[in-house]
Write a structure and sequence with these properties.
The chain has 11 helices and no strands. The longest helix has 51 residues.
């Protein structure tokens, strides 16, 4: 019972992050499932089955708050589904001994990317309003879907920063569109896993626990996307993913590092993680103060202009 409650809390926390940041539900959930000894293919299958419900509720909530661009959803979602089915089929045919360190390496790479991306640059802003073309979105969706299925997560870490970096869609619509299109990816990946490993290798109760937590959090996250500082959240989540998957790799048959190596590595990661969060917080406050000062100056200018007219 305690494990089920923990899984529901994981689902809730992961969906709060995913719905606010446009990434990390699958990466966070799969990382924790692997940490408690779940088979890699079964872990990814469990997460993707739960995501069918969470992405449906999340997409509806984002649509309600005006966070979805349906043209982007259509152009990236269908290729994403094709890539996810292919990735699920590939992972299903790997042995556990091979799949576990491979998945940990993929998740570690995604975690480093999230940590560095959001700590160093935050959310980019640029050329809003210019169209996102199919020749950009289709390959992005295909690659993101494959990584998502093989790594247990990756749709958001691949898709969200790439579209944000284009500067053509405002951040809340990037996040809402990625979350909504992930519904197609989750269905395709789940179909691939059910065909590859069978229903008997998936714990339906675990799926339900993750789903329950995610469904509760989805509408809250869609509302929070307008208010939460994503730079700080990205640094925090990236650090969790890096630390957990470094632990998995160091304990795997690939490396099998002794305690004298593992614990100093953990300490260094924790120090870097803490520094990243502190830097992100400082940058967020500086940017917020700058925006406030610019708003005050603009308001004062409007008052001066009004006074001159009279």
């Amino acid at each position: 019972m305690r494990k089920l409650v923990l899984l529901a809390l994981v689902g809730l926390g992961a969906q709060l992050v995913d719905g606010s940041l446009g990434m990390a539900y699958g990466v966070t959930s799969t990382t924790l499932l692997l940490a408690i000894g779940t088979n890699p293919a079964a872990a990814s299958a469990t997460v993707h089955l739960a995501e069918i419900g969470t992405t449906l509720v999340s997409g509806a909530a984002h649509w309600r708050f005006g966070n979805v661009d349906w043209r982007v959803v259509a152009k990236i979602g269908i290729p994403g589904g094709i890539g996810a089915f292919a990735g699920a089929t590939f992972l299903s045919h790997l042995s556990t001994e091979v799949a576990a360190p491979i998945m940990a390496l993929i998740l570690l790479t995604l975690g480093v990317y999230i940590l560095v991306r959001f700590t160093a640059w935050g959310l980019p802003r640029g050329r809003l309003g210019q169209p996102l073309r199919k020749r950009f979105l289709a390959p992005l969706g295909l690659f993101g879907g494959f990584v998502d299925a093989t790594g247990g997560g990756g749709w958001g870490p691949v898709g969200t920063p790439a579209i944000l970096a284009s500067g053509r869609l405002e951040p809340r619509k990037v996040i809402g569109s990625i979350d909504t299109s992930e519904f197609v990816v989750a269905i395709a990946a789940s179909a691939g896993f059910l065909a590859g490993i069978g229903r008997e290798n998936i714990d339906v109760v675990w799926v339900a626990a993750l789903l329950l937590g995610g469904v509760v959090a989805a509408p809250i996250a869609a509302w929070l996307v307008r208010h939460i500082p994503p730079r700080i959240l990205g640094s925090a989540v990236g650090g969790v993913i890096v630390l957990t998957n470094t632990r998995s790799l160091l304990r795997s048959d690939w490396i099998d590092a002794p305690d004298t190596v593992r614990y100093p590595v953990y300490a260094v990661i924790c120090l870097i993680w803490a520094a990243a969060i502190a830097y992100s917080l400082a940058q967020y406050r500086a940017y917020r103060d700058l925006e406030t000062a610019e708003a005050i100056d603009a308001e004062a200018e409007r008052h001066r202009a009004a006074a001159n007219r009279t």
